[in-house]
Amino acid sequence: MAEIKAEPFAFPVKHDQLALIVIDMQRDFAEPGGFGASLGNDVSRITRIVPNVKRLIQGFRYAGLPVIHTMECHRPDLSDLPPAKRDRGNPTLRIGDEGPMGRILISGEPGTAILPELAPVKGEVVIEKPGKGAFYATELGEVLQQKGIKQLVFAGVTTEVCVQTTMREANDRGYECLLAEEATESYFPEFKAAAIAMIRAQGAIVGWTAHVDAILESIAHA
Known about the structure:
The chain is α/β, with parallel strands linked by helices. It has a single domain (3-220), classed as Rossmann fold, CATH 3.40.50.850. 34% of the residues lie in helices and 20% in strands. The chain is built from nine helices and ten strands. The protein has helices at 27-30, 35-38, 44-47, 50-63, 83-86, 140-147, 159-172, 189-204, 212-219; strands at residues 3-4, 11-12, 18-23, 67-72, 98-99, 102-103, 125-129, 151-157, 176-185, 208-210. A six-stranded parallel sheet has the order 7-4-3-8-9-10, with helices on both faces. It has a two-stranded antiparallel sheet with strand order 1-2. Strands 5-6 form a two-stranded antiparallel sheet. β8 (151-157), α7 and β9 form a beta-alpha-beta unit. α4 runs parallel beside α9 (212-219) and α7 (159-172) packs parallel to α8. The longest helix has 16 residues, at 189-204. The protein is globular and about 55 Å long.
């Protein structure tokens, strides 16, 4: 069986059951003037991983392996936005309000879109998710089942919130999860470090972590 060099030990990869999930690489989280920046965050921490995320996407495409994108967003009428979620964050600029790139985190708005450099191509699945985890109130589980996917490589933002939440959801559903370390990021470096430690603690209790180059080297031989 093929393996990817990983922590806390090698990841036993099955290329015919492997997919890449790119979490929430959206303009509102990565560009100046977006929702992330409005909360006082340094968005340059997010944009610096774009080249590594792009390399992963291209590698999976070249190998003929599925690439799935997620976007955190809500319906225009806000019917899927709990008040408890809307009431947190920046009290002067909330989800659904008009921002520099349209209504914040609303489906179809410019700021909700995936960064152009990482945009999905025809045939790639895009999951619009109202929560932090990509399985909640979405069709992701059905999509993975239809494609025969049992192993997931994760990239995207933020490491400690939407990425880790989705990995935990996937882990509970029986998927083997691998986080690409240089293709994920947080606004807070200490949060990323803590999330990585939690994910691979106690013998990969949530999943594995690996370097982008190790993942690409493996799928090049898929």
